[in-house]
């Protein structure tokens, strides 16, 4: 198998804009549907959603009521899409957009942990432990990557969560006009501002590279996926700053060469990215459901299923050249829905697994191939698509950006969303609103349970009285 880097990029194909927007919207849809089963076991997911059918338009599939899901309004995404949006907005916030600024993204992320996405009145919900621990450090903004590395070292170099992977697809989209190694470089630089573990870095490089290739039309079959996996691995492995982030003076024990090599074990990587079934990944295993390789492996398997044109018992809708035999957007929408639903019903860290898988499969089927009863019901979906379309134009994915006039950032792309910094009173009011929503939903469930039990008793009495 060749691992030679690709030649300088050729012009983008006409399908690139549709695939780029399909990536961003597909990820948000996967994230939103994934919330239905996030943190559940497979058995609990099947019990909660026995039909394994989800709709974001009327009749909307209700979320299982519990303390986790009660925080989120219906039909909305989670922190996964918020963080992807932060990078997209960072790119769009300057008159000369550039996708290369990890420090600007880190500053956005720090602000998000306090204020959320103010343009959408979205509080910061669902922050992962690694991101919360790293970003809350007092000196985080002075050197985000260094603070992230120190945090990882202090915790025994064992933390390889999926929090950096869930936002990386945007880098692949914005980097589509350029070279593969540039996407890897940005993916690595942005990834390590929260997740220093080499496994997280290689996962980000894989997904960034795959999205770039899918948008460009250079990743068209499973063999292309396999080659990109090997190229990405080799690129990270050859760069000590990512593959071997050992402690410096005063940062803890320095690893031996053997210990450092185990941080990026090829057999462990292969076991996940070449998995044949979701069962092999044990996605709902409680102690390891947030492991970055589980998420990566699930997303790659989902892409493989899409390329085969099948999910579960589906017939193969693609010929030997990966051309759609039916050339039918509804077929692609059916494919996307079935693949993401099958993954979501595996439960575990379902929102992140489906967000990354949704990005890859969304890039494969394009925006036109996403299910309408999901896309049309997504809260803030039009705003998200508008930002994605704007980024696609500015990045030159939809043609020559220079021919479209001077780019002027809109106020809602600014770090404060054009609304100024939140006061402490506003922050407290936002947090209080979340708790109030949770209490209301809890009372509604309790009342419904009382009614259900009451009707059950009344039915028994009526039956007994004849």
Structure description:
The structure is a single chain. The protein has helices spanning 16-34, 42-48, 79-92, 102-115, 129-135, 144-154, 169-174, 180-191, 198-216, 222-237, 240-243, 257-262, 266-273, 292-308, 329-344, 350-365, 372-375, 381-394, 424-465. With 466 residues, the protein is mainly α. α15 runs antiparallel to α16. Residues 1-6 and 311-329 have low confidence and may be disordered.
Strand content: under 5%
- The overall pLDDT average reads 88
What is the number of helices? 19
CA distance, first residue to last residue: 77 Å
Query: Roughly how much helix do the residues carry, as a percent range?
Result: 40-55%
Supply the CATH superfamily name of the largest domain: ADP-ribosylation/Crystallin J1
Organism: Pseudovirgaria hyperparasitica
Binding site for Mg(2+): 78-80, 349, 351-352
GO molecular function, one term: hydrolase activity
InterPro entries: ADP-ribosylglycohydrolase, Ribosyl_crysJ1, Ribosyl_crysJ1_sf
Strand-helix topology:
Elements: H1 16-34, H2 42-48, H3 79-92, H4 102-115, H5 129-135, H6 144-154, H7 169-174, H8 180-191, H9 198-216, H10 222-237, H11 240-243, H12 257-262, H13 266-273, H14 292-308, H15 329-344, H16 350-365, H17 372-375, H18 381-394, H19 424-465
Helix pairs in contact: 1-9, 1-16, 1-18, 3-4, 3-18, 4-8, 8-9, 9-10, 9-16, 13-14, 14-15, 14-16, 15-16
């Amino acid at each position: 198998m060749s691992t030679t880097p690709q030649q300088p990029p050729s012009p983008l194909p006409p399908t690139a804009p549709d695939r780029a927007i399909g990536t961003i919207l597909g990820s948000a849809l996967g994230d939103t549907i994934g919330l239905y089963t996030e943190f559940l076991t497979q058995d609990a997911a099947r019990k909660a959603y026995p039909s394994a059918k989800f709709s974001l338009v009327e009749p909307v599939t209700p979320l299982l009521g519990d303390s986790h899901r009660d925080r989120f309004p219906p039909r909305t995404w989670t922190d996964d899409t918020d963080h992807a949006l932060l990078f997209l907005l960072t790119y769009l916030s300057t008159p000369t957009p550039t996708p290369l600024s990890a420090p600007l993204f880190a500053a956005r992320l720090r602000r998000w942990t306090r204020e959320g996405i103010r343009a959408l009145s979205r509080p910061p919900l669902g922050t992962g432990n690694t991101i919360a621990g790293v970003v809350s450090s007092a000196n985080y903004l002075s050197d985000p990557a260094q603070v992230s590395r120190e945090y990882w070292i202090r915790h025994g170099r064992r933390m390889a969560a999926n929090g950096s992977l869930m936002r990386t697809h945007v880098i692949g989209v914005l980097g589509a006009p350029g070279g593969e190694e540039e996407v890897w470089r940005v993916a690595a630089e942005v990834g390590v501002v929260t997740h220093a573990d080499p496994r997280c870095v290689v996962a980000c490089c894989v997904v960034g590279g795959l999205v770039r290739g899918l948008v460009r039309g250079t990743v068209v079959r499973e063999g292309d996926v396999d080659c990109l996996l090997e190229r990405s691995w080799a690129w990270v492995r050859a760069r000590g700053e990512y593959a071997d982030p050992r402690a410096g003076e005063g940062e803890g024990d320095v690893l031996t060469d053997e210990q450092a090599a185990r941080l990026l074990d090829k057999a462990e990587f292969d076991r996940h990215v070449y998995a044949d079934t979701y069962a092999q990944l044990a996605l709902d295993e409680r102690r390891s459901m947030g492991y970055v390789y589980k998420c990566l492996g699930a997303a790659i398997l989902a892409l493989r299923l899409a390329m085969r044109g099948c999910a579960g018992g589906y017939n193969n809708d693609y010929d030997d050249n990966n051309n759609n035999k039916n050339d039918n957007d509804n077929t692609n929408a059916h494919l996307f829905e079935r693949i993401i639903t099958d993954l979501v019903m595996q439960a575990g860290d379902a929102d992140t697994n489906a967000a990354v898988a949704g990005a890859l499969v969304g890039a494969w089927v394009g925006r036109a191939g996403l299910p309408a009863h999901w896309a049309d019901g997504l809260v803030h979906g039009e705003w998200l698509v508008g930002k994605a379309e704007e980024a696609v134009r500015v990045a030159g994915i939809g043609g020559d950006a220079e021919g479209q006039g001077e780019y002027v950032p809109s106020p809602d792309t600014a770090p404060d969303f054009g609304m100024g910094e939140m006061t402490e009173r506003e922050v407290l009011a936002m947090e209080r609103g979340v708790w109030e929503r949770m209490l209301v939903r809890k009372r509604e469930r309790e009342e419904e349970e009382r009614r259900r039990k009451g009707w059950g008793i009344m039915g028994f009495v009526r039956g007994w009285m004849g």
